[in-house]
Amino acid sequence: MKFSVVLFSVCLLVISVSEKTGVVEGTVIDKPEFPPEPEKNETTPAPTPTPAPPTTAPPTTTEPTTTTTEKTTTTTTPATTTSTVAPTPTPSPTPTPTPTPTPTPGPAPAPTAGTWVVNGANHTTCIMVKMAAQLNVTYLNKDNKTMHQLITLPNNTMSNATGDCGAAEQYIKISWNSSMALNDSLVLHFNKNGTKYSLHHIEANLAPQDLPSYQFNNTLMLVNNTNEYPVAVSNSYRCTKAVKLHLNSNVPNTTAVFEVSDLQFQAFRSDNTTAFGYAEDCAFETQDVVPIAVGCALIALVIIVLVAYLVGRRRSQARGYLSM
């Protein structure tokens, strides 16, 4: 009986010792000789690994772990977006607006026709002129560059006419105000020779202010001295097509072209009517080409007749030899 009690006590002792030494179900676990780790390491489960915080945000020790992780996420996201993920695009350069080209002036408007008269003694009209005219002046400016200036003759409502009714010479002077309130003028001289008269010469006087950058301060005078348009006394001269006359000046490198259209004039009149006399139209003027063409045709005709005569004579001589 005592032996069984002792044996039971020994078994209990063995069981308690085996639990302490790590013997479970016949398996012996070697224990290190140094004392075991604290209980919190045995009872606390391994924490769930969390993503390492970015190196850009310093760790916070005073706040809980969850709070620190949330703050790190919210603060590092904008930095990543700005520097790496979405860089700020460089603004494209603003295109330079193309300047609007200055419109170049078109051709000068065609001049309007006007009618001017010169009255003599006893209220008779000695000169009547109807025309539309322009002056195209070519000159050198102060920088020695060639310039062209177009000056239009105003009609009779914006100009006035004066003149002289002589027995052998007559003229009409058409004057108008220039842009600088100075007078420009155009003078037509007529000469009478027996039963005909003609436009003897044309004279234009232009103020220097009407010519941009003109290098002289004196009035520019341009003249055409060639007799033009002979016509019988008591008749008028008419030419509706445009005609150009060249005017010269004593100023070097300065000329002008006087272009006139719808022209009709009559000088040496002796009545007080306002109607032109019988018109001699320029369309019926004989050109230089016509006499040249007529002369060539006559020469060709003479040659043809001469050749025909020689051929006929040779044939007649050949027949005479055959008859003998």
Tags for this model:
324 residues, six-stranded antiparallel beta sheet, elongated, single chain, alpha+beta
Task: Write a structural description.
With 324 residues, the chain is an alpha+beta fold. Helix content is 25%, strand content 33%. The protein contains 4 helices and 15 strands. Strands 3, 4, 5, 12, 13, 14 and 15 form a 7-stranded mixed β-sheet that branches. Strands 6, 7, 8, 9, 10 and 11 form a 6-stranded antiparallel β-sheet that branches. The chain has a two-stranded antiparallel ribbon with strand order 1-2. Keywords: Cell projection, Cytoplasmic vesicle, Endosome, Glycoprotein, Membrane, Signal, Synapse, Transmembrane, Transmembrane helix. It comes from Cotesia congregata (Parasitoid wasp). InterPro entries: Lamp2-like_luminal, Lamp2-like_TM, Lysosome-assoc_membr_glycop.
Order of helices and strands: HEEHHEEEEEEEEEEEEEH
Low-confidence stretches: 21-35, 38-47, 51-85, 101-106
Query: How much helical structure, as a percent, in the residues?
Result: 25-40%
User: What structural class results from the helix and strand content?
Assistant: alpha+beta
Count of extended strands: 15
Q: Average pLDDT, to the nearest integer?
A: 75
Based on CA atoms alone, the radius of gyration comes out at 61 Å
Helical run tally: 4
Q: Give the overall shape.
A: elongated
In whole angstroms, the N-to-C terminal distance is 207 Å
Strand content: 25-35%
